């Protein structure tokens, strides 16, 4: 049964990933995510239903618009596959969660994917998406009690407070977008887990930053958005939370 469910979550993830592509493309520009329907940015050709099938349509069209032949970025199917993979990982690792808890986790994961790519594209974390993270964080504590409300609030205020001080005294290094985002993450994962998430985010940052310097010869001062690392740290926390909580035994 587990395998059947894993496949269902994976396919569901591919479809949500397709929707996230729209969110990532349109939310930073302040456009509606429902209308107009998906179309080629080059010739305006509206995608036919079969052209909306995640990944497969990209393969059939060999990465080109079906009408004008403009190249479609490989990032679209990559985000669909990533979302499918992360949905399966969520289902397989969050075994302590009730069904409502699992649904909150999937929404949380989807929002993290959207925020990651928007931050990479624009160096911005749109308030509307950060507010949604905070919103499902609060609803989650009330409905599942995991984490309980006081842990959510301490997580949000504690980590948000620390980030606020960093952003206040070192504005070149951290923006208020990161402060709001980490507070929202704190609401969702709670205390002390938010500290684990930020620790994992820092490790990821050091690793990827170092890799970037070696591979691309980039300087340390070249700006690099922190949002994707916060999202990555939170995902690692989510997938390994049961093991981690066992280790730190809070
Ligand atoms: Zn076209």
Fold and architecture overview:
With 250 residues, the protein is mainly alpha-helical. The protein folds into 2 domains: 1-93, no CATH class; 97-250, no CATH class. The chain contains 9 helices and no strands. It has helices at residues 2-26, 56-60, 75-93, 99-122, 127-144, 149-169, 176-189, 193-216, 227-248. Helix 6 runs antiparallel to helix 7 (176-189) and helix 8 crosses helix 9 (227-248). The mean pLDDT is 93. The structure holds zinc ion (ZN). The site of zinc ion has 8 residues, from loops. Zinc ion binds at residues 40, 42-43, 45, 65, 67-68, 70.
Structure summarized in a few sentences:
The protein has 250 residues and is mostly helical. The chain contains nine helices and no strands. Helix 1 (2-26) packs across helix 3 (75-93) and helix 4 packs antiparallel against helix 5.
SSE diagram, text form:
Elements (H helix, E strand, L loop, with lengths): L1 H25 L29 H5 L14 H19 L5 H24 L4 H18 L4 H21 L6 H14 L3 H24 L10 H22 L2
Helix pairs in contact: 1-3, 1-4, 3-4, 4-5, 4-9, 5-7, 6-7, 7-9, 8-9
The structure holds zinc ion.
Overall pLDDT metric: 93
Query: What distance separates the N and C termini?
Result: 33 Å
| Overall number of structural domains | 2
Number of helices: 9
Structural class computed from helices and strand pairing: mainly alpha
Instruction: Please mark out the parts with pLDDT under 50 across 5 or more consecutive residues, or reply none.
Output: none
Bound molecules: zinc ion
- Helix percent band: 55-70%
Order of helices and strands: HHHHHHHHH
Strand fraction band?
under 5%
Largest sheet: none
Overall geometry: globular
Rg, Cα atoms, Å: 19 Å
Number of strands: 0
């Amino acid at each position: 049964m587990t395998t059947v469910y894993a496949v269902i979550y994976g396919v569901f993830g591919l479809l949500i990933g397709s929707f996230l592509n729209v969110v990532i493309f349109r939310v930073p520009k302040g456009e509606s995510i429902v209308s107009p329907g998906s179309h080629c940015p080059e010739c305006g050709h509206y995608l036919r239903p079969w052209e909306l099938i995640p990944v497969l349509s990209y393969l059939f069209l060999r990465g080109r618009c079906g009408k004008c032949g403009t190249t479609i970025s490989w990032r679209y199917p990559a985000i669909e596959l990533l979302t499918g993979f992360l949905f399966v990982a969520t289902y397989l690792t969050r075994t302590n969660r009730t069904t409502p808890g699992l649904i909150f986790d999937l929404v949380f994961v989807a929002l993290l994917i959207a925020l990651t790519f928007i931050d990479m594209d624009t160096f911005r974390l749109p308030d509307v998406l950060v507010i949604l993270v905070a919103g499902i964080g609060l609803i989650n504590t009330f409905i599942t009690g995991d984490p309980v409300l006081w842990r959510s609030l301490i997580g949000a205020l504690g980590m948000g407070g620390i980030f606020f001080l960093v952003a206040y005294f070192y504005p070149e290094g951290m923006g208020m977008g990161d402060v709001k985002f980490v507070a929202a993450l704190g609401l969702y994962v709670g205390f002390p887990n938010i500290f684990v998430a930020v620790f994992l985010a820092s490790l990821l940052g050091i690793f990827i930053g170092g890799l970037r310097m070696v591979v691309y010869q980039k300087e340390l001062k070249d700006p690099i958005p922190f949002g994707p690392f916060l999202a990555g740290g939170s995902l690692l926390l989510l997938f390994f939370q049961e093991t981690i909580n066992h280790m730190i035994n809070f």
